[in-house]
Amino acid sequence: MKAYTIGYAITLVFGVLSSGVTAQCPFHKRMTEGGGQDAKLEQLEQYSVNDAGTQETTMFGTKINNTDSLKAGLRGPTLMEDFMMREKVMHFDHERIPERVVHARGVGAHGYFETYEDWSDLTAAKFLRTPGTKTPVFVRFSTVLGSKGSADTVRDVRGFATRFYTEEGLWDLVGNIIAPFFVQDAIKFPDLIHAGKPQPNTDVPQAGTAHETAYDFFASEPATIHTVLWALSGRGIPRSFRQVEGFGVHTFRLVNEEGKSVFAKFIWKPLQGLSNLVWDEAQKIAGKDSDFHRNDLYDAINRGDYPEYEFGVQIVQEEDEDKFDFDLLDPTKLIPESLVPFKPLGKMTLNRNVENFFSETEQVTFHLGHVVRGIGFTNDPLLQGRLFSYLDTQINRMGGVNYMQLPINRPINPVHNSQRDGQMQFNIFKGKVAYSPNGLQADTPSMVDAKDGGYIEYPEMVEGRKERGKSAKFFDHYSQAQLFWNSLTPPEQQQLVDGARFEIGKSKSLDVRKRMIEILNHVDNNLAVRVASGVGVEEPANKYKNSNQTSEGLSIDQYPKAKNIRTRTVAILTAPGTDTSDAKKMYDYLDKEGAYVQYVGLALGDQDGLNITQTYTTTASVLFDAAYVPGGKKAIETLMDNVSQFPYEEPLSFVLDTFRHGKPLAATGAGVELLKAARVKVPSSSKSYAEDKGVLVSSSSTSLEEPFKKALIQQRFWSRMPLDKNAK
Ligand code: HDD
């Protein structure tokens, strides 16, 4: 009720505003002055409710004590009359709304977008036309297949949906972290999702494609292979939402004031670097911390380490539409950056966590059709179908048509039209006119033509027969899959092969496995042979031609590294007897550089002056980016004691997993013995961090500081990972 009351009050304020009394409302004043980075935040503030220090009331405002229900005698039946119990339980019964049919699990954050330059030559969109303009944004990252309570680190595509609250209305860029999409036409989307989601007879497996129906579909629909390869690579298991790219996937249009249009692919590039987990690690994290990605984002933002993503476009001129081997309208294709470079337009910073998950992250209703002037659509058949689906699905989730009035969904500029009534109508519209044209209200709200600031419809020429089918270039399913495979480094290819063996190997049907190997063979024979050997299928004999073409922008490993070690998580492994001076020096150094450092010990609390915040039971190597083992003979003996102290060898597993997963690992003094006991290949003499593949040893922590920092910037040492004997 409290929220409703406030919403109602705001509504009245807006009502007053629309009748012309603008000066009394600071919010409206700011709007008329033109948005600004905090405009959305301040709007949301007005709907916020703080219950701290208040007194309990019913939803209708009566003060109450509802500790016990009302009974006829203390051991007697509860009375129907108990309005407090009825209301509270009734509300509880209705707390859930349907989860999203796809992308159910997500995490959201607020921030702002700042445009670098005046891009008027490209677009009429106002927020892209003045350098330094700051536009509030809300981003929701999500996994696709799992339900709302599924684990974060499953292998899956992930959503990267961004809402820009511009002065001219909302623009929702509803993209993914993977550049191509599985299917070419929206009519195939329900099939894709039915095949990927848990099987209808058993409702398993949760949150992943490692099952028969998914691969039966992929094997039957070769258009999926390009995206399947992305998902099987490191792209399907990102280290963090702070280290993912985002892609609008479709080709869109930008239209400028003169009505000139260009084709545009939208891309986000993280400035924190790009990084992924290894599959063994991702699976272990799903058990140790199923909220790993959510926690990572919340923590970084809470600590002021705001993730930044550069936003840009690949531009194709109207007259070049047909110059590529692929069709710009085919969403299973990307535009290789070696053909059309990425042009940065601005930067997004995520600087605030949500106050309330349900009100903001759950109730946000993204829709591709939320566009501002200067941004438009193409005839991509997947895009066209999405324009229907997102509106439709929100009505199912929100229970009515007025969901755009929810605080998270309201634009920051005023809304006026003749749409009325419907469930949960919050506005009180004055007057008797709710139609257009009208004479009684001077024909207002008045229609706005493109030349006066209204939406610009690009007058694309369209002609053709009505028919079902696809254009010829849509049938090339393998060229770009091959380009992707060819562009990965050998360790990245190995990760893809391992991922494919796991996923395809989960299919009990030999026929599905065989057909899948056949599809892989069309991409590359070496890929198919290597996967076949792991899934009980004969090596394919046919060798199809590999173009050997590669492109920039596809390998994670070759993506520019972060410039510092801010937010890298480092575990310092200790036990009573640890050389505290060494441990502290390393802690202080890394902490000063912005890393998130924690001492892991036998018990929480003080240990010889070190504040132990994790134990070998509460955490594990997979939850850190790196580990350091300081000296101290007694401590190392304790950590190696696999009889009385650590029967499950937790410290040894910690070290071994850090090594196996390619992460920086450092040790000093007796700490080196723990590495050796964990079967880590320890370099014989001190070399550079790169030559030692991120395993660094020394007699003192000070000499390790700089090399460890460089290793942390490098983040992973994939060269440590073993390759198949027949890897090329
Ligand atoms: Fe979709 C949600 C991304 C194709 C139908 N989609 C949804 C979300 C993202 C994407 C990020 C979550 C939004 C949020 O955080 O609330 N979807 C994509 C991308 C696609 C794509 C990048 C291909 C380029 N989607 C697609 C098709 C259809 C849908 C072809 C239907 C024909 N998508 C939906 C939906 C969802 C959705 C059913 C579920 C919840 C929602 O919309 O709000 O409408």
From TrEMBL:
<keyword id="KW-0479">Metal-binding</keyword>
<keyword id="KW-0575">Peroxidase</keyword>
<dbReference type="GO" id="GO:0004096">
    <property type="term" value="F:catalase activity"/>
</dbReference>
<keyword id="KW-0349">Heme</keyword>
<feature type="cross-link" description="3'-histidyl-3-tyrosine (His-Tyr)">
    <location>
        <begin position="367"/>
        <end position="390"/>
    </location>
</feature>
<keyword id="KW-0408">Iron</keyword>
<dbReference type="Pfam" id="PF00199">
    <property type="entry name" value="Catalase"/>
</dbReference>
<dbReference type="GO" id="GO:0005829">
    <property type="term" value="C:cytosol"/>
</dbReference>
<keyword id="KW-0732">Signal</keyword>
<dbReference type="GO" id="GO:0042744">
    <property type="term" value="P:hydrogen peroxide catabolic process"/>
</dbReference>
<dbReference type="InterPro" id="IPR018028">
    <property type="entry name" value="Catalase"/>
</dbReference>
<dbReference type="InterPro" id="IPR029062">
    <property type="entry name" value="Class_I_gatase-like"/>
</dbReference>
<dbReference type="Pfam" id="PF18011">
    <property type="entry name" value="Catalase_C"/>
</dbReference>
<feature type="binding site" description="axial binding residue">
    <location>
        <position position="390"/>
    </location>
    <ligand>
        <name>heme</name>
    </ligand>
</feature>
<dbReference type="GO" id="GO:0046872">
    <property type="term" value="F:metal ion binding"/>
</dbReference>
<keyword id="KW-0560">Oxidoreductase</keyword>
<dbReference type="Pfam" id="PF06628">
    <property type="entry name" value="Catalase-rel"/>
</dbReference>
<dbReference type="InterPro" id="IPR024712">
    <property type="entry name" value="Catalase_clade2"/>
</dbReference>
<dbReference type="GO" id="GO:0006979">
    <property type="term" value="P:response to oxidative stress"/>
</dbReference>
<dbReference type="InterPro" id="IPR010582">
    <property type="entry name" value="Catalase_immune_responsive"/>
</dbReference>
<feature type="active site">
    <location>
        <position position="103"/>
    </location>
</feature>
<dbReference type="InterPro" id="IPR020835">
    <property type="entry name" value="Catalase_sf"/>
</dbReference>
<feature type="signal peptide">
    <location>
        <begin position="1"/>
        <end position="23"/>
    </location>
</feature>
<comment type="function">
    <text>Occurs in almost all aerobically respiring organisms and serves to protect cells from the toxic effects of hydrogen peroxide.</text>
</comment>
<feature type="domain" description="Catalase core">
    <location>
        <begin position="57"/>
        <end position="444"/>
    </location>
</feature>
<dbReference type="InterPro" id="IPR011614">
    <property type="entry name" value="Catalase_core"/>
</dbReference>
<feature type="active site">
    <location>
        <position position="176"/>
    </location>
</feature>
<dbReference type="InterPro" id="IPR002226">
    <property type="entry name" value="Catalase_haem_BS"/>
</dbReference>
<protein>
    <recommendedName>
        <fullName>Catalase</fullName>
        <ecNumber>1.11.1.6</ecNumber>
    </recommendedName>
</protein>
<dbReference type="InterPro" id="IPR043156">
    <property type="entry name" value="Catalase_clade2_helical"/>
</dbReference>
<keyword id="KW-0376">Hydrogen peroxide</keyword>
<dbReference type="GO" id="GO:0020037">
    <property type="term" value="F:heme binding"/>
</dbReference>
<dbReference type="InterPro" id="IPR041399">
    <property type="entry name" value="Catalase_large_C"/>
</dbReference>
<comment type="similarity">
    <text>Belongs to the catalase family.</text>
</comment>
